[in-house]
Amino acid sequence: MSNGQWYPPEWPDRIRALAAGELTAVVPKRAATVMLLRDTADGTAVHMLRRRASMAFAGGAYAYPGGGVDPRDDRPVRWAGPSLDVWAERLGVDDTSSAQAIVCAAVRETFEEAGILLAGPTPDTVVGDTTGDDWEADRQALVDRGLSFADFIDRRGLVLRSDLLGAWARWITPEFEPRRYDTWFFVAALPEGQRARNVSTEAESTVWISPADATDGYDKGELLMMPPTVATLRTLQAFRTSAEALAAAASQDMTPVLAKARLENGEVVLSWPGHEEFTKHVSTGGTR
């Protein structure tokens, strides 16, 4: 392939099965991921994880911290920032409970996978350091699901800072995938005093990289990524600082992006509406 687009070998058969009506689409689970930014002398850098090469799904691919919504993420927490009604409208969901669960998942997963916590003791502060043994014990308890995010926030007397997040995009896993996610992408700035760590069990390494360098590596076939990652990186290139990116979040299009598969001249054409660069033609002989 000419770039680093991750393309599972089983996709062609599953696409054909879906087109033939032989495959029933799995209902996608809700998920959230955060593009964590920090300012450097050369511009904005984004924190990325390199997934373990041994993983069946997107092994070796670069991605952002994130994961599925926990059923307990809708439990009430101390809240700062836009109201849940505002978040529900922005995220395109029908109820405030869903909005809270998605935002809480974004904050929780960022803490679980990068050690960064968007919360503070008051509505206008953020914790300064999350590297102590007690913090690590709580982080691991969240990962193991022995501790709910609401209980974690409550026990530490913290306020969730939803105002530090900006909703950026929404992508839904193609219908022919056996594991599907409806994923909301957020942007956030690295809080002062905190530092990202490689604590994810799914990542073999982490890197701070400029969006331009990341997409250049993808274009050269040096960095493996999935379409949503590439697309969001390309949109981030326009902003020199994390503050600029956060300010621009409100104007980003949150229309869900869902890949489509169609039959055309004996081929199955796979496309992501509005993102023509990811179009693939699937035939008996392979892809192009």
- Cα distance spanning the termini: 8 Å
Average pLDDT confidence is: 90
CA-atom Rg in angstroms? 19 Å
**Anisotropy-based shape:** globular
**Order of SSEs, N→C?**
HEEEEEHHEHHEEEEHHHEEEEE
The biggest beta sheet reads:
8 strands, mixed
| Uncertain regions spanning at least 5 consecutive residues | none
The tally of beta strands, per DSSP, is 15
Strand % is 25-35%
Derived from helix and strand composition plus strand pairing, the structural class reads: alpha+beta
- Range of helix content: 25-40%
Put simply, the count of helices is: 8
Protein name: NUDIX hydrolase
Domain Nudix hydrolase: 28-231
Cofactor: Mn(2+); Mg(2+)
Keywords: Hydrolase, Magnesium, Manganese, Metal-binding
List strands and helices in order, with pairings.
Layout: H1 11-19, E1 29-40, E2 43-51, E3 62-63, E4 66-68, E5 79-80, H2 84-91, H3 96-114, E6 119-120, H4 133-143, H5 149-155, E7 159-161, E8 165-172, E9 181-189, E10 203-209, H6 211-219, H7 227-236, H8 242-248, E11 257-258, E12 260-264, E13 267-272, E14 275-283, E15 286-287
Parallel strand pairs: 1-9, 5-7, 8-11
Antiparallel strand pairs: 1-2, 1-4, 2-3, 2-10, 6-7, 8-9, 12-13, 13-14, 14-15
